[in-house]
Design goal:
With about 500 residues, this protein is of the alpha/beta class. The protein contains 20 helices and 10 strands.
Length: about 500
């Protein structure tokens, strides 16, 4: 079998490389370096070791992913000639070396054995210099491909591949999503390289103002238990709710059940909708937090009962979103919202069949009976229209509304009037749905408008020392019109 020996060059000079790695490099006939920009290279040159580097690939390609793929493919092509290839990389081959991962993935498939000869990486010297015990919680991250989701502030974080100020700037912006601007971090360069090593402690906001960036630069972010940082973590919040429910926690939270919490979920939802109508982002964020509190409380109660946890809730939602969006995560197509809805309904049916659950015999099934009547009627309208049971023109529904109004006015008994009033409401909801206006939102705006205008009427009467029930209709109408004109 053709072979590639992947050798680690260690973190510094010849003293940081293993004896086995040294012997393989000095005896090899064909040596490739990922980069010649490493402190040990000059020492090998002095010993007469010849090599080829891939530094020109970095200059020719725009993306690091393209660089790594090109290097791996060239090495595989060289190995297919039958000659033993030595490929040397900085540090340890299994630490932050994407080209090695590509060789391990593709080499065996093409008949090439990949053999690893390690040497100490910069992690070894970093743990020693910084006094880090990785068992306390540690992550090594790629600065060129960093996301906020990778940042866990209760762990030791080392960020490698901090080549220049541009990458440092991107890293700073990501870190500022989690840490305060003045959080102290450590800029590390050439760790373990005698005469060149630098460890600089700086506030986060100064990161991209530094000048000591090279292929040997990394960052260390110390762990923290600071509340101002952990308060933004979902897992920290979940732990808070568990603590409130635990022995020694809060008596009110401890006694809650799914049923006792029911009115709060409804209440918080309506408070969010009010904040939305008022276009108040701060209030929206606060009210969404209150809704999230209800979700976490229900999940914690269920977890204590052995039914499900918040992780199960997240898993179910994630799985559903991926399954029901095959036009995004699969091979189906959907060019408009109507096709998305159609796909969604088809997938729901397939899921029920696969789970052995009975498929609903009516499209009106599973409309919650606990919904307010207005929303139930709207949902019935919407589902019926989805299968073509709908009006063709808005004018037809308006004619139906006039017909229902006449029937209400001509109803002979209170019971008949009640029935006809229901028909009036239902027809109005049909108009709303046909016009793509949500009736609940429309009614909420009308309620808010009435509230503001009527409070103005009360205020005007109070300023004139008139009891409202003693004001004339003409006076109240005048104040009402004044309130209305102030809205324009």
């Amino acid at each position: 079998m053709n072979k590639i020996d992947v050798i680690g060059l260690g973190f510094g000079d010849l003293s940081s490389i293993t004896l086995g790695a040294y012997r393989k490099i000095t005896s090899a006939k064909k040596i490739f370096l990922r980069t010649a920009d490493h402190p040990i290279v000059e020492e090998f040159l002095a010993e007469g070791v010849l090599f080829q580097s891939f530094d020109e690939v970095y200059e020719a390609k725009d993306q690091f992913s393209e660089v790594y793929e090109t290097i791996a493919e060239r090495l595989i092509q060289e190995a297919l000639s039958g000659e033993l290839i030595v490929y040397a990389v900085p540090g340890h081959p299994m630490v932050a070396e994407k080209t090695v991962q590509l060789l391990l993935e593709h080499g065996p498939k093409r008949g090439i054995e990949i053999r690893i000869e390690g040497s100490p990486s910069f992690l070894d010297v970093a743990f020693s210099k910084l006094g880090i015990d990785p068992i306390d919680g540690f992550a090594l991250l790629d600065g060129a491909d960093l996301s906020v989701d990778q940042l866990h502030p209760n762990q030791h974080l080392l960020i490698g591949q901090v080549y220049d100020r541009f990458i440092a700037s991107d890293i700073k912006l990501s870190l500022m999503e989690v840490y305060p601007d003045d959080y102290e971090i450590y800029l590390l360069d050439a760790l373990g390289v005698e005469g060149k090593e630098q460890i600089v402690r700086i506030p986060l906001w100064e990161l991209d103002r530094q000048t000591i960036f090279s292929n040997l630069t990394a960052l260390y972010i110390p762990p923290t238990q600071a509340e101002r940082i952990l308060y933004r973590r979902f897992d920290f919040l979940a732990d808070i709710i568990a603590t409130l429910r635990s022995p020694g926690g809060c008596p009110w939270d401890q006694k809650q059940t799914h049923h006792s919490l029911r009115p709060y979920l409804i209440e918080e939802t309506y408070e969010f909708l009010e904040a939305l109508d008022e276009e108040d982002p701060d209030a929206m964020a606060e009210e969404l937090g209150d809704i999230l509190l209800q979700i976490l409380l229900h999940s914690q109660i269920a977890s204590e009962q052995g039914h499900f946890s918040i992780q199960d809730v997240v898993e179910h939602l994630t799985s559903k979103m991926i399954r029901r969006h095959p036009h995004v995560f699969g091979e189906k197509e959907a060019s408009n919202a109507e096709q998305v809805v159609q796909n969604w309904e088809e997938i729901k049916k397939e899921e029920k069949v696969s789970a052995g659950k009975p498929v609903s015999s009516s499209i009106l099934d599973r409309i919650p009976k606990t919904m307010p009547s207005l929303l139930q009627a709207y949902e019935q309208n919407k589902r019926a229209a989805r299968v073509g049971f709908d009006w063709e023109r808005l004018e037809e529904i308006v004619e139906k509304l006039q017909e229902e109004l006449q029937e209400f006015l001509q109803a002979p008994t209170d019971l008949d009037r009640e029935k006809e009033m229901g028909d009036l409401f239902f027809t109005l909801i049909s108009i709303s749905r046909f016009a793509k206006i949500h009736p609940e939102l429309a009614l909420q705006k009308a309620i808010s408008k009435f509230d503001q205008r009527f409070r103005y009427v009360e205020e005007q009467a109070n300023q004139r020392s008139i009891k409202l029930n003693e004001a004339t209709v003409e006076e109240m109408n005048q104040w009402w019109d004044e309130a209305k004109s102030k809205e324009m």
